[in-house]
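Provenance and format

Records in this collection were gathered into a single text stream. Each protein contributes a sequence line and a token line. The two records reproduced below are adjacent in the stream.
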Amino acid sequence: MALPPHSLGDWNDSVSITPLNVTFTEDPPRASPDINDTNRAAGGDATSLLIPVCITALYSLICAVGLLGNVLVMFGVVRYIKLKTATNIYIFNLALADALATSTLPFQSAKYLMGTWPFGEVLCKVVIAIDYYNMFTSIFTLTMMSVDRYIAVCHPVRALDFRTPAKAKLINVCIWILSSAVAVPVMIMAVTKVTPQGKTSCELRFPKPERYWDTVLKIGVFIFAFVVPVLVITICYGLMILRLKSVRLLSGSKEKDRNMRRITRMVLVVVAAFIVCWTPIHIFIIVRTMVDIDRKNLLVVASWHLCIALGYTNSSLNPVLYAFLDENFKRCFRDFCLPYRSRLEQSSFSRARNSTKEPLSVCAPATARRPSA
């Protein structure tokens, strides 16, 4: 879940390809070609190459980890019985949004290195739309995961009807439809433009007055894709904490109670990671909207790119969190990465499992039996 760069052009108000249409160039500062002084030119070249190279290296790492990790998460939810729960259906939705976001990073990296957008207007529209879809589907999914945990903890009887995989899938579809209310208009507004320097930029072209609609989009996204969802999440977890403190056993079973607390803790960590990764970019954009920032200051440029990279990092961080915090995901990841070892272990314990009539392996294929809710 990331807030990727959207200004694939120069540092001016008309060029922007980031969610929120930041009126801030995404291009790292480049050395002026008419500098005569050799030392200054060498220093300028070094500076102009440093940021694009660092961005490309970082994006390559995030893309590799994010794509592999999120695809593995989606595969696990689809493939294995134990992962077909309401919470994991939401995790699948989150992984899908993150995988799509990280898939745009090679295009972003190429743009940084080349200093222009060489992929045409169609891909310009697609990349911008994916970024907005990622931003909205991620926070909406995390909000629904928090509401889901609140119902499971505070209203366990009602949870039996509400917390089903079928209803979670329906909610996921609604989340994508709702996100389309922003992503589709933005995709329509996305265009390519040749700058006076002869380079191509990918930007959002607003109706007039452009400055007004630009500001409306930024503030609207900040409120509906950050402030309101974070407020709902905070309220849900505040009520859950009060409930968990007042009741020793939530479900009447120590095993079920321990599992419920574990899942609640995992969702809380994922939500907290999202907020930590996204807060800097939202603050940066709002400050930029209200205050005239020096766009050529190297510290400002570096801070901007760091904020963007932090948002992208969140998309690759979630699968790591699942692997460390959820035992079921950990086992399924291990079974996927080490299939021969997994088969050997299952074979060695098959007799004991049959004699004691224990349930199938947590990572048994979905065709083995019907999933539990």
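Adjacent record:
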Amino acid sequence: MLYLLMLMVMCLYVSIVDFLHRKIQNNALLLLLLLQSFLSPLDLQITTFLLVLGIGLILYALIWIGAGDIKYAAVLSLTIPLNDLPWAYIMTAFAGGFLAVIYLITRKIISNKVNIQEGIPYGIAISVGFYLIILTQNTPHI
């Protein structure tokens, strides 16, 4: 339970920083890596980690996603079994779609009033999608 609480706090921190600055800090990712490696009750999934990192690097080369988002998803995937990885991506896509709709509505409403930053802070969607999968693994009765 302590692991889930600490993971939630870290995901909230990364999401807030990504929202405010459009950047995912490496020191936060290092703390998250330590949390995943030493406090998680789940087995580490190196294959999943490498797959997420590899796919992420391809998406980064195509300029579809930022490097911080890739590293963040890779670190979170350390405790997600390979067969649950598609669900993490599906949940992330739903959260990202919802976030995109909110951003479009917000941009339409306040576009003339305030200078808003470009791009969607996808760290928020990654936090939601991957955390929900990790949560359901740690609490199988959900």
